[in-house]
């Protein structure tokens, strides 16, 4: 069997405005200063395991996605990384599917799986978000391999992140009995909890964060989908059967149910005992807002997006997070400041306001600055 | 008699870094969004009264000063102001004296006075800082006219600003008996007081802020200088006598005592009853730091230096002060923020830190960013 990666790349990430924009969402951005966008890092992280990688993105972002993948392919064809001295992993076959309209994650993943199944009906596919950070790649690879093993036994397997705090911003996975060492049954997927419930989850040791990673045989994935959502499965299959015929794609896609993979198959299948979870601690972050971005850069002033470290001078400003684009930034006497310079704007806020940044784009529209959204 | 203005233009104003730089001090900057630099505003403010205006500045700034004065002369030669519809005042004769090295205010003012005296021995001169703001020009003109009247009676006249707070950042002028309506004798110039003393000064109603404005006949000014500082007076006279001979200028200037006009003549002459003060309230500010700049722009987000008002969007950020240069600034959830974008840097601080901004240039040097001083 061979393993194929699917990367649904959507979502604007407005809590990271202006690094993440409706027109240039965070998966296209180098948030970590790695030299690669989050999408590129996701592709590279999967490269050692995946025979092919299919990115499913909105039509508006197809060009940018293709350009970033072409960049990776160019790097992989080169000799050595200038930074690490190591040869870049071979990124394998890179495919892009452009969704005519957003339909949430289930149609995107199912279509990619169905297209992969045409070439390889025995394939195992794994779906991974385009805009998450994973610091411990070895742990990630180990978890994916364990999930592939569970998938080969017929499970839809997920990777559950061992919580390091009682976060209320994620759904949780309630584990059941061990299936094989390192793999457990899933009792249930549970929604984002309130704070006391999250405390209880974490204290019990039985709950993991749901990071939206799913691994399954294409036959299992599409079979389960056909069972729970037959119309959606049939539409996806019709598109895949006439793959390359854009007219069929547009017509059938427009009829597909908008639904997330969690609701469509993971939750009902877990009730039937068909979902396995690989618990893993791997320095995962969804980098959902400036607080988590700050935590990810280790509490230091972080610089990226074209800046270099000496472009920030912080004076009496502990806990500041600064991204520069072209101008040096000096911050003095402001605690926990967040300062973001992009090509077309300068944004100043603080970590206490991190959750409210999502409202900034609407405020800009009200202020007549829709151009900055 | 005719009145001639002298504008000593020096001082870096580091508490307004990076709007005010060692290489481009605040008198060259449009801090108020008037469309003119503070120096240009000072020249324009004096234009209705002054037959000529002499700017005395450091050699390093001579070029920038000449360019700004040429701009004013060009405007005055034009027809109508596009903004106000009013004809710009005729700015009269504009002269520049470039100091080979800084010698504080007394040598600068005395030399300008001595050069003016060559043309007009009966002239009255008035010296005014290049980097102060005066909102009520009519009140200013009235005060200068009263000071000229006192000067014609033989006084060295100053204009004392009616305090609107017990500020500890200014020297004070202690008034004595009335000489003529609107003009009083000066008992003493007193140094910057501590807070309780300042409270007492303001409560007494007998004290005014010393804004460094002095008006006198050239003959009186130079005569008093010759009495208290004969070597300095002789050196200045030697330069004026051979005005145009740069060798003499360099040689004599290098020997001149470094001293401020307050210490050199105003304080000792006040003890002898030779100084008069015109008390005036005219919306004066020395714009010494970001707190006073904030107060001057009426507590609103202020924009200048090439920016336009809609280039700032403030969300949940009361009391912010923002200057843009080329990029729109969005500030969210930060109270009393100060955000300054210049051509080559972005500075973020808050009003609580306003007094400490003066230390930023040195911190930059320690951080290896001497280029940003």
Description:
Two copies of one chain form a homodimer. In chain A, strands 6-9-7-8-10 form a five-stranded mixed β-barrel, surrounded by four helices. Chain A has a three-stranded mixed beta sheet with strand order 13-15-16, with no helix packed on it. A two-stranded antiparallel sheet of chain A has the order 5-11. Chain A contains eleven helices and 16 strands. Chain A is 33% helix and 24% strand. Chain A starts with a strand and ends in a 7-residue tail after the last helix. Chain A has two domains: 3-285, Spore Coat Polysaccharide Biosynthesis Protein SpsA, Chain A (Alpha-Beta Complex); 299-372, no CATH class. With 373 residues, chain A is α/β, with parallel strands linked by helices. At the A-B interface, β14, β15, β16 and α11 of A face β14, β15, β16 and α11 of B. β14 (329-332) of chain A pairs parallel with β16 (346-350) of chain B, so a sheet runs across the interface. Chains A, B: InterPro entries: GMPP_N (IPR049577), ManC/GMP-like_b-helix (IPR054566), Mannose-6P_isomerase_type2 (IPR051161), NTP_transferase_dom (IPR005835), Nucleotide-diphossugar_trans (IPR029044). Chains A, B: It comes from Arcanobacterium wilhelmae. Chains A, B: Residues 311-360 form the MannoseP isomerase/GMP-like beta-helix domain. Chains A, B: It is an enzyme of class 2 (transferase). Chains A, B: Its EC number is 2.7.7.13.
């Amino acid at each position: 069997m061979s393993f194929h990666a699917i990367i649904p790349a959507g979502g604007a990430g407005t809590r990271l405005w202006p690094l993440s924009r409706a027109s240039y969402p965070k998966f296209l951005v180098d948030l970590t200063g790695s030299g690669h966008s989050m999408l590129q890092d996701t592709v590279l992280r999967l490269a050692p395991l995946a025979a092919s990688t299919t990115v499913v993105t909105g039509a508006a972002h197809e060009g940018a996605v293709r350009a970033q993948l072409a960049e990776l392919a160019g790097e992989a064809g080169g000799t050595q990384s200038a930074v690490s001295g190591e040869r870049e992993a071979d990124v394998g076959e890179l495919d892009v599917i452009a969704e005519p309209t957003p339909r949430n994650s289930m149609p995107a993943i199912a279509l990619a799986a169905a297209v992969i199944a045409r070439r390889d009906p025995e394939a195992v596919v794994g779906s991974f978000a385009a805009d998450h950070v994973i610091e411990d790649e070895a742990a990630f690879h180990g978890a994916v391999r364990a999930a592939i093993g569970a998938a080969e036994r017929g499970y839809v397997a997920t990777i559950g992140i061992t919580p390091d705090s009682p976060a209320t911003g994620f759904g949780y996975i309630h584990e059941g009995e061990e299936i094989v060492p390192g793999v457990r049954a899933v009792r249930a997927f549970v929604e984002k909890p309130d704070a006391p419930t999250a405390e209880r989850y974490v204290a019990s040791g039985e709950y993991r964060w749901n990071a939206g990673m799913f691994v399954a045989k294409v036959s299992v994935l599409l079979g389960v989908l056909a069972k729970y959502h037959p119309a959606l499965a049939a539409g996806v299959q019709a598109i895949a059967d006439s793959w390359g015929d854009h007219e069929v794609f547009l017509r059938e896609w427009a009829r597909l149910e908008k639904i997330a993979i969690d609701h469509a198959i993971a939750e009902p299948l877990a009730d039937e005992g068909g979902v396995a979870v690989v618990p893993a601690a791997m320095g995962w972050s969804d980098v959902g807002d400036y607080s988590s971005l700050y935590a990810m850069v280790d509490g230091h002033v972080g610089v990226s997006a074209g800046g270099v470290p000496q472009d920030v001078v912080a004076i009496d400003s502990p806990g500041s997070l600064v991204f520069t684009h072209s101008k040096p930034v000096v911050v003095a006497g402001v605690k926990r400041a967040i300062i973001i310079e992009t090509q077309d704007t300068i944004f100043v806020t603080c970590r206490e306001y991190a959750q409210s940044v999502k409202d900034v784009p609407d405020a800009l529209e009200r202020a007549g600055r829709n151009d900055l959204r």
